[in-house]
Write a structure and sequence with these properties.
Elements: H1 2-21, H2 23-33, H3 42-64, H4 72-89, H5 96-112, H6 133-142, H7 148-172, H8 174-196, H9 222-228
Helix pairs in contact: 2-3, 2-5, 3-4, 3-5, 4-5, 4-7, 6-7, 6-8, 7-8
Length: about 230
C-alpha cells in the first residue's frame, strides 16, 4: 500500500507539471475556439491579453536564462508574437492572430525544451501569400553564410515580416503591404552587411580591430645616397 501511494503521488505530480506546461497552449486553443464577434466581453479580452502576456514572459525568461537576445529562434518567436498582437489590436477578423501566435508558442516550447533540431524554415500561414522571392532568396542564402551568427536577428525578423507583408497584401492590397516590404528590404540590407563583416565567432566578440599593415620603407642603396649627398 505504501509503495502504491508513492507511485500515485508521483503520477499526480507529473500530471500537475504537465498541466502547468500546457496551460498557455490551452489558452491559445480557447482563443481559437472563440468566434471574433464574441471577443468583445471584458472576460474574453482579458483572457486574450493574458495569452499574449504569458508568451512575452516566457520569451523574457528564456533570455534571462541565457538565450541571447539576438538568437535566431528567440527573435523569430518575438516577431511572430508582435505580428499576432498587432493584428489583434487592429481587430483582424481572420484566424491570422491564432496562427501567428501558434508559431510563436511552438518556437518558445522548443527553446524551453532545449531542442537542438529546431527547423529554420519559416511557415507561410494560410492567411498570407509568399511574395518577393528575391528577399526570400536572400534570407535562404544568408542562413548558409559563414557570417550567419552575426546576422541571425535581422534574418529572423525579415522572414516574419515577409509573411506579415503577404497577409496585408492578400487582405488589403499592396498599399497596406508596402511598409512591411520596405521593412524587410531594410532588414535584408542590414543582415547582409552584418554577415559580410562577421570575422569572429560570437563568443569571441568584440572582434579585434583590423589594423592596416604599414607600408614597408624602401631603403636606397648606399651608392645612391652618396651621390645624392654630393654638393652641387
Amino acid at each position: 500500500m505504501w509503495a502504491y501511494n508513492i507511485t500515485r503521488r508521483a503520477c499526480l505530480a507529473l500530471a500537475i507539471v504537465s498541466a502547468q506546461a500546457s496551460y498557455a497552449e490551452e489558452m491559445v486553443a480557447e482563443t481559437l475556439a472563440t468566434p471574433q464577434q464574441e471577443r468583445i466581453s471584458d472576460t474574453v479580452i482579458n483572457r486574450d491579453l493574458n495569452t499574449f502576456k504569458v508568451a512575452q514572459e516566457r520569451i523574457a525568461k528564456l533570455n534571462n536564462n541565457g538565450t541571447e537576445a539576438e538568437n535566431y529562434y528567440l527573435v523569430k518567436a518575438q516577431a511572430w508574437l508582435d505580428f499576432a498582437m498587432h493584428e489583434y489590436y487592429e481587430n483582424d477578423r481572420s484566424p491570422v492572430i491564432e496562427n501567428a501566435l501558434a508559431q510563436a508558442y511552438m518556437l518558445i516550447k522548443q527553446m524551453e525544451a532545449a531542442d537542438s533540431q529546431i527547423s529554420m524554415d519559416t511557415t507561410v500561414i494560410p492567411e498570407s501569400v509568399r511574395l518577393r522571392e528575391d528577399l526570400w532568396k536572400i534570407a535562404a542564402q544568408l542562413k548558409q553564410h559563414q557570417g550567419f551568427a552575426c546576422a541571425a536577428a535581422p534574418i529572423a525578423e525579415m522572414e516574419v515580416r515577409l509573411v506579415w507583408a503577404g497577409h496585408e497584401h492578400q487582405e488589403l492590397g499592396w498599399r497596406h503591404a508596402r511598409e512591411h516590404f520596405a521593412a524587410a528590404e531594410r532588414l535584408a540590407k542590414k543582415a547582409q552587411k552584418l554577415a559580410d563583416n562577421c570575422f569572429c565567432p560570437p563568443e569571441e566578440k568584440p572582434c579585434p580591430m583590423l589594423v592596416a599593415e604599414a607600408t614597408p620603407k624602401v631603403e636606397q642603396p648606399k651608392e645612391a645616397l652618396a651621390v645624392d649627398n654630393k654638393p652641387l
